[in-house]
Specification:
The protein has about 70 residues and is an alpha+beta fold. The chain has a domain at about 1-50. It contains one helix and five strands; from the N terminus they run E-E-E-E-H-E. It has one helix at about 35-45; strands at about 1-5, 10-15, 20-25, 30-35, 50-55. The chain has a three-stranded antiparallel β-sheet with strand order 4-1-5. It has a two-stranded antiparallel sheet with strand order 2-3. The radius of gyration is 18 Å and the shape is globular.
């Protein structure tokens, strides 16, 4: 996950398909997006996004099924 600062003048609204969430950020705001989306935003809108470092927040991963049965003795 990557933090980006938005340098545009109007509110940006978009979607990060890798993190599966909406992106809404105002001028000068920080947003946490997937690394893939960060590269896409910087390539598509050069000069409007500034890299602000990596996020310590981990990408949400689906929970594992913790209700597993122990192997039955044969």
């Amino acid at each position: 996950m990557t933090r980006l600062r938005y340098l545009g003048r109007a509110t940006y609204r978009g979607y990060d398909p890798w993190a599966r969430r909406l992106i809404v950020v105002g001028p000068g705001g920080l947003v946490v997006v997937s690394d893939e989306k960060a590269r896409e935003l910087q390539a598509t809108f050069p000069g409007l996004w500034q890299w602000a470092g990596h996020s310590r927040r981990r990408h949400h991963r689906p929970a594992r099924n913790k209700m597993t049965r122990p192997e039955e003795d044969k």
